[in-house]
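Help needed: design a sequence for this.
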């Protein structure tokens, strides 16, 4: 279980998040939406331990996430795919995956390639020469090499064509189903994300203005009024 308990956070005098709470059972799928500057990335950074909340705590299976100890958080089962295609461009696909699993089980490369067939097809290709969508799949595969219980994704659809966005979202659903990996997806593309997540949180100026199940939000004709 992942619990966000009354988390507030900021940067100096600026408040970026105010009193955010959420309780997620293992394998849950949460979408986090909101305009630029709403605090979405800051929330992900608090969850992974890259940013210290000014108040509140994040707990994984009852134990607090310690700010400043990101590698320890990753070892505890939370992986983070930051915005942009975070691959080593001069290494091959296989080398990128292997390096990501160095502290874990390197043989998991086979599982990841089974999950993302495009990576198997391109295993010897230099990552920097792949398309944006392929690089995003590789970034997902690299995160999966740590065999996470939770996968945090910051705007995975950025810069991708609609058909590729569908592929990426589809693969996330497969990851969730195959390994029971919980998903926390920060996105600007709300319709595409609502197809994958089961609950969502809309942030506005650091505050939660909607929190509930995805189907209810998807059915709202006035959905955009929340933003
Ligand atoms: P985006 O969609 O543009 O990535 P976001 O919803 O992820 O936005 P955050 O990046 O969490 O929002 O930013 C929340 C607020 O904190 C914004 O006002 C932003 O300018 C500010 N902020 C973010 N990072 C820093 C930083 N390193 N130093 C100072 N202020 C920051």
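Sure. Designed sequence:
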């Amino acid at each position: 279980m992942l619990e966000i308990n009354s988390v507030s956070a900021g940067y100096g005098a600026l408040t970026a998040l105010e009193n955010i709470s959420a309780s997620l059972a293992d394998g849950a799928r949460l979408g986090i939406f909101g305009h630029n500057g709403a605090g979405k990335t800051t929330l992900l950074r608090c969850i992974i331990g890259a940013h210290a909340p000014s108040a509140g705590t994040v707990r994984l299976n009852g134990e607090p996430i310690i700010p400043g100890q990101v590698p320890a958080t990753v070892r505890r089962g939370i992986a983070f795919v930051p915005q942009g295609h975070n691959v080593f461009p001069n290494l091959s696909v296989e080398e990128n995956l292997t390096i990501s699993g160095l502290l874990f089980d390197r043989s998991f490369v086979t599982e990841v390639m089974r999950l993302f067939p495009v990576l198997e097809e391109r295993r010897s290709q230099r990552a920097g020469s792949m398309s944006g969508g392929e690089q995003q799949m590789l970034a997902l595969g690299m995160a999966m090499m740590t065999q996470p219980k939770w996968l945090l994704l910051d705007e995975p659809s950025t810069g991708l064509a609609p058909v590729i966005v569908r592929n990426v979202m589809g693969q996330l659903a497969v990851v969730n189903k195959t390994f029971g990996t919980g998903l926390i997806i920060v996105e600007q593309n709300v319709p595409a994300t609502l197809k994958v997540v089961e609950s969502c949180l809309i942030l506005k100026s650091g505050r939660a203005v909607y929190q509930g199940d995805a189907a209810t939000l998807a059915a709202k004709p006035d959905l955009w009024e929340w933003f």
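The longest strand covers residues 14-24.
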